[in-house]
């Protein structure tokens, strides 16, 4: 059996199709409709991800992990996400200051 997680090319760009196709093969499903049922999402969600109109969100990534037993890192690698960390700006956590004058 070939290892579906082996990716040699470091120049791979974001491609959710590779991730979806790998999940279909690994779970021995027939098509995107079967994958959407396995992931418990509506079929248009898979279509929008395939056409890069919708990103693979955290909750969907976790669901993919649960049904495939692949690690989150492996799933991210399959779609071409090579970031080591996710960074959040300081500004997102600062409360808004309202200058109220009396």
Question: What does this protein structure show overall?
Answer:
The structure is a single chain. The protein is elongated. The N and C termini lie far apart (74 Å). The protein has 5 helices and no strands.
Give a topology summary.
Blueprint: H1 16-26, H2 32-39, H3 43-50, H4 58-68, H5 72-78
Summarize the structure.
The protein is mainly α and 102 residues long. The protein has helices at residues 16-26, 32-39, 43-50, 58-68, 72-78.
Q: Measured on Cα atoms, how large is the radius of gyration?
A: 18 Å
Report the principal-axis shape: elongated
**Which percent band covers the strand fraction?**
under 5%
Count of DSSP-assigned helices: 5
Helices and strands, in order, run as HHHHH
The level-1 CATH class of the domain at 16-78: Mainly Alpha
Q: Give the N-to-C terminal Cα separation.
A: 74 Å
Q: Helix fraction?
A: 40-55%
For the report, how would you describe the main beta sheet? none
Give the class from helix and strand content and strand pairing. Answer: mainly alpha
CATH topology of the domain at 16-78: 434 Repressor (Amino-terminal Domain)
Outline the low-pLDDT stretches. Answer: 1-9
Number of strands: 0
Instruction: Provide the residue-averaged pLDDT.
Output: 81
Keywords summarizing the entry:
5 helices; 44% helix; mainly alpha; 0% strand; 102 residues; 434 Repressor (Amino-terminal Domain); disordered N terminus; elongated
């Amino acid at each position: 059996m070939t290892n579906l997680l082996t990716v040699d090319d470091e120049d791979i760009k974001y491609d959710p199709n590779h991730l979806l196709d790998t999940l279909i093969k690994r779970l021995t499903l027939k098509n995107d409709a079967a994958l959407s049922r396995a992931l418990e999402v509506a079929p248009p969600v898979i279509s929008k991800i395939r056409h890069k109109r919708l990103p693979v969100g955290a909750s969907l990534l976790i669901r993919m992990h649960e049904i495939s037993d692949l690690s989150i890192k492996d799933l991210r690698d399959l779609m071409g996400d090579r970031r080591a960390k996710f960074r959040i700006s300081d500004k997102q956590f600062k409360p808004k200051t309202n200058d109220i004058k009396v």
